[in-house]
Amino acid sequence: MMNEAQLVAELKRHKVHFLANRIDDCGPALSSEMLIANLASHPQARLRLALIPLFLTQPKFSTAVDAALELLDDPHQVTLACYYTAALLLQQKYHDKLVDVFGVQPILPDLFEDRFHLEGETADELLHQLAKQHAEQTDRFVNWYGTYHHAFQRLMKAQPDRHHSYA
Questions:
Q1: Local confidence band at 165 (pLDDT 50, 70, 90 cut-offs)
Q2: Nearest Cα to 56, choosing from 126, 103, 123, 125?
């Protein structure tokens, strides 16, 4: 398991401005699946939450999700599946805002459609359903819907040269 400073430096290496860190480099780059697995299994919630900004800013990392899942035990697989799906839905909900800040990005594929079976008209409805399933699957009945949005809002506020407010 990588420590907090190493993971934050690795996120910074991929231009994911989400968590503050004074260390610019922590050695050789991690593979995509190792970065994802280390974030998903980290004991600190804020580092696990960094998965959402990672997928929003670097959708190419979606190709490493299956390999990362193989490195994780069941509870951490749930974390990865929920945060990845939250990123996918936030990408849909805030598409224009994300394009405004990061430019046109590839659309995240729905890797967990068979796991969650979400149905609804809007991304927001689906986020509410995901939050409910997240609570049920983890036995942690926190405001997951708010947590997902917090990750998005914090990501947007942390961007250098941001010109808009995204509350």
A1: very low
A2: 103
CB 145 within 8 A of CB 131: yes
The structural domains of the chain, with segments of one domain joined by +, span: 4-157
pLDDT tens-digit map of 77-99: 999 999 999 999 999 999 999 99
Mean pLDDT of the chain: 90
Percentage with pLDDT > 70 across the chain: 90
Token pair of 152 as six digits: 């998005």
Q: What span, in angstroms and rounded, lies between the C-alpha atoms of 144 and 132?
A: 8
Please tell me the distance from the alpha carbon of residue 21 to that of residue 25, in angstroms, as a whole number. Answer: 10
Please write down the long-range contacts of 27-35, taking CB distance under 8 Å and 24 or more positions apart: 30/2, 31/64, 32/60, 32/61, 32/63, 32/64, 32/67, 32/68, 33/64, 33/65, 33/67, 33/68, 33/71, 34/68, 34/71, 35/7, 35/10, 35/11, 35/61
| Residue 154 phi, psi dihedral angles, 5° rounding | -65, -40
Q: Indicate the helix (H) or strand (E) that contains 154.
A: helix 144-157
